[in-house]
Amino acid sequence: MDNNKVVTVKNLKYRYTPDGEWTLNDVTFQVNKGEWLAIVGHNGSGKSTLAKIINGLLMPEEGSVFVEGKELKEESIWDIRKRVGMVFQNPDNQFVGTTVRDDVAFGLENNGIPREIMMKRIQESLEKVRMSEFMNHEPHHLSGGQKQRVAIAGVLALEPSLMILDEATSMLDPQGRKEVIETVRSLQKVGQMSVLSITHDLEEVTQADRVIVMNQGQVFAEGTPEDIFELGDKLVSLGLDLPFTVKLSQLLNKKGVHLSKSHLKQQELVMELCKLYSKM
What we know:
By secondary structure, this protein is α/β, with parallel strands linked by helices. The chain has 2 domains: 5-231, Rossmann fold, CATH 3.40.50; 243-280, no CATH class. The chain is built from 11 helices and 10 strands. It has a 6-stranded mixed sheet with strand order 6-7-8-3-9-10, sandwiched between helices. A hairpin with a 2-residue loop joins β9 (210-215) and β10 (218-223). It is globular.
C-alpha cells in the first residue's frame, strides 16, 4: 500500500445501461494524502458518477478503485464508506435530526460510537466549522452556508480520510460559498484530510491543489489550477469558463498593462497592480 495515496482509480469504466455509451471510459487518477483535488467538467462529463463510485453508491463495470489500499467490492462497501464522507448539493436533503446536535450525532449512532466519544466528537466537529453556538438550533432556521457547515461537521465527526464535496456550494449564495470553501480549506490544511470536490464553482477550483478536467467520460487535462486555466479557450470549448480574475488579467494585458501572469486570486492581482502603480 502506498501511504501517500488515499484513493487510487485504475482504468475505471461505467455505463448506466448494458448497451449504452460509457459514462466513464478508462479513467485513471489518484487522490494524495492531505491534498484538495477538484474535478470539473460540463454536465454529463462523468464527474458526479465518479464521486458515487468512490463512495460505493455505484459499482464499476470495469477497472478498480482502492481506498487506503482496500479495493471497492460488494463486501468492502461499508468499510470504505467509513473512510469516505460525502457532502451533497442540497443541504436541506441531508438533515435528519431535529437539532444541529442530533444531526451530527446521526452518523455516529449508526456506526455504534460509544456515547462519551460521540459527545466529544460532536463538540469538536462543530467547533471546527464554527457552529458550536448553534448546537441546539433547528437546522431549517440556518442559512444555506451554515447548513452546509453543519453537514461538513457531520462528516468530520466520522473522522474520514477523504471528504467528497459533490457540487456542495452550487446552491449557495456568494457569502455561503465563501464560508464553505474557507471552512474546508482550513480543515484540509490543518487536519491532513484529503478533499475531492466535484464542482462548477471557479473560486472553489482556484483553492484546490490539483485539478482534473473531465470530458465525455475521460480525463481531458490534469494539473495545478494555474496549469489548467492556462488552457484558456480549450476550456471554453468544453463548456467551461475562466475565473473573473483570469479574464481581467488577460484583458489588462491586451490593454497594455503587462502583468507577470494571469492571476487566479483577487488579492494577488490587486498586489501586482499596486506595485505597477507605485512605479508610474
